[in-house]
């Protein structure tokens, strides 16, 4: 059984697997919990997301309010085919984002995070690779493979080192929180500002043993000299060392919406 999705929480239709032509040789991407293939549905190019195991889909199932019988096999979604991820978009040398486009993408991203938080879900891996961008410049979140329920007492320490908040990197490490998602959003804001597609702290590679002590000591990605003051302030506040000093997602949304008016 395949679910056709329109957005974060709406299922448009339920299809049988043979209703969609899926090319197993054309893999668009893989994540912690799923593989995405290119497919066709009624003459339209689509993305077909196949979850590796039913149990790994527990948060997606709760978000879209649908019951799935594990006996029927793996879960798949038919989604709109997105143009690229945000990392790829930021790396386009001949088509840089305007400030309005950056703000629009940032707002789309934080609204997606806010939706997850409303459902008591922590994203835990916010980064440009997990933000998909449409042809008209709208952004949507993807890959919820390591998302966690905020009320769990045994939350796991998972994520990408460059985007993990300082409190997650100590010994002992704090549990992921809404504030740690906000921190990752702050890192993403610095990448929108840079507009190069380069990974933060690239000289550290992915060595958390070298990077994390520096982050706990205050290391953050730099913003450009011509970064708008309000954008700089928002990014810096999101990356505050203490979780309680970071803005809430609702405050971030209000700030970004005000700049689009």
UniProtKB/TrEMBL annotation:
<dbReference type="GO" id="GO:0005524">
    <property type="term" value="F:ATP binding"/>
</dbReference>
<dbReference type="InterPro" id="IPR000719">
    <property type="entry name" value="Prot_kinase_dom"/>
</dbReference>
<keyword id="KW-0808">Transferase</keyword>
<dbReference type="Pfam" id="PF00069">
    <property type="entry name" value="Pkinase"/>
</dbReference>
<dbReference type="GO" id="GO:0004674">
    <property type="term" value="F:protein serine/threonine kinase activity"/>
</dbReference>
<keyword id="KW-0067">ATP-binding</keyword>
<dbReference type="InterPro" id="IPR008271">
    <property type="entry name" value="Ser/Thr_kinase_AS"/>
</dbReference>
<dbReference type="InterPro" id="IPR011009">
    <property type="entry name" value="Kinase-like_dom_sf"/>
</dbReference>
<keyword id="KW-0418">Kinase</keyword>
<keyword id="KW-0547">Nucleotide-binding</keyword>
<dbReference type="InterPro" id="IPR051681">
    <property type="entry name" value="Ser/Thr_Kinases-Pseudokinases"/>
</dbReference>
<protein>
    <submittedName>
        <fullName>TKL protein kinase</fullName>
    </submittedName>
</protein>
<feature type="domain" description="Protein kinase">
    <location>
        <begin position="22"/>
        <end position="261"/>
    </location>
</feature>
